[in-house]
Sequence to fold (225 residues):
Amino acid sequence: MNRKIINIPPDLIRFTSVDWDIDWRGQSIGGNDGVDQVVFNRFPRWIGSPDMVLPGPQAARWRGIRAAAQGRSHVLRVPMIDPVAYDRLANVPRDVRERGLPFSTGERLSTGYGFTYDAAVNAVGDAPKGAELLQVRQGTHLRPVVGQIMSAADLPFIVTSVRDLGAGDLELGVQMPLRAAIKAGDRVSLCGWGLFELAGDMSARPEYGLSRVARPKLELVEWLR
Fold:
């Protein structure tokens, strides 16, 4: 089956709780003298079960996205909103926050909306698959911080250290190690994006009552392609 990638627009994401984490998938194999030994899987993955709050029209949009995913048949491309480490809309003009980026002419689509705002930095040098260090050029965007979730090619990672190299260049320590090579000039998103499957076909139903506000819990497991 050809699995489709269903994009979740960032403006739909209104999390009331966030718990993004890496599941290292370690398994205990016991040990001698009471010392436990752990074997780690070669393929760790991201998991998350954030709570959402969706007023009426947003709940309807989510219902449509969920139906398009057909349970676990297809894959969700999820912005890993994490405001304690990175506020993706800081210093962004109000019209861009509310209606997205326009074309270079200043015009937007016929719907009145533009393109998703997604700030990024660029890689300074090549970084091979498996690397735990990545050099980027800061530019005019917010400086990455320890604990921030970033991504390249929809493969998220956590920043574990930040070292100033001068002239706006930074060396980032990252975990998990890069799962795909990054070339100089490649785009590295300041907000992590990942490809996820719903944990179950009935997960995240947009139930609501008289308030017409749905509060689904997303139960997500990273799709390892």
The chain has two domains: 1-25+45-82+193-225, 119-191. The chain has a mean pLDDT of 87. The longest strand covers residues 155-166.
